[in-house]
Design brief:
This protein is mainly alpha-helical. It contains 6 helices and no strands. The chain starts with a helix and ends with a helix.
Length: 163
């Protein structure tokens, strides 16, 4: 009987310790904010170096990819600043269905153009590897979006219960 109680006590303490020691990754939101604070040049340089390591780019490819990434980073920074200014002025509103379709078309056109540019710069093996990485990133973004929706739903349900 004593042995059974000791085993149960040990099991419970191990279970509690395992739950208490749950290690979480650093907050991804903080990492995203740090990336947003980078200048377009810094962001493009970091991205091009990561791509160089991943795809084994030569110097000519590095320069061409960096130019494309710099243009993208500058455009993204300008859009963020515009959105931030609208938000501060209180002019930021949810887009209408027509605006959403227009934004989706613009995003997809940009992705198509990016693929075409990368196909010109990269060889077949590099392009295939880059395409796989892009698909993996898109899949992760989709999963993260689903997680965020789930969290928002849970918060709404908790708020309804407290009211």
């Amino acid at each position: 009987m004593r042995k059974l109680v000791l085993i149960a006590l040990a099991f419970i303490s191990i279970q509690a310790f395992a739950q208490g020691e749950k290690k979480e990754r650093p907050n991804r939101g903080e990492r995203g904010k740090q990336m947003m604070n980078l200048s377009p040049e810094e962001a493009a340089t970091l991205q091009s170096k990561k791509m160089t390591l991943h795809l084994d780019l030569n110097e000519k490819q590095q320069a061409e990819v960096k130019a494309i990434l710099l243009a993208n980073a500058e455009a993204r920074k300008a859009k963020m600043e515009e959105r931030k200014a609208k938000k501060e002025k209180g002019e930021l509103q949810k887009p209408t269905q027509e605006q959403r379709v227009k934004m989706a078309n613009a995003r997809l056109d940009h992705q198509i153009a990016m693929k075409a540019k990368m196909k010109k710069i990269l060889n077949e093996e590099q392009y295939a590897k880059w395409g796989k990485a892009q698909a993996r990133m898109a899949h992760r973004a989709k999963e993260k979006k689903g997680e965020m929706k789930k969290k928002m739903h849970q918060k709404k349900m908790q708020n309804k219960k407290t009211e």
